[in-house]
Amino acid sequence: MAREKVTITLSRDKAEMARSLTDARSTSEVIDLALDRLIRTERLRRDLAAYRQAPPSAAEMALADISDSELNDDTDWEALYPMAPRE
Prior knowledge:
Elements: H1 12-22, H2 27-53, H3 58-64, H4 68-71, H5 77-80
Helix pairs in contact: 1-2
């Protein structure tokens, strides 16, 4: 995703505390991290709201009841889907 320089007004104390809590190298990194977390949280909140409006079907509930042993195989999912490095 393209980046561009912007001007914002924020509390320096909050930015510094967030920077120290996250070990971020810069205020820009703190803001980027905060926006990533906000986007993820908001998407989850909206997904949960949508889920509450349409509860799972009987077939979906049956799938959820399948035990781990029935789904167990030798697939190395971590090798197939490695974690993407953070930019």
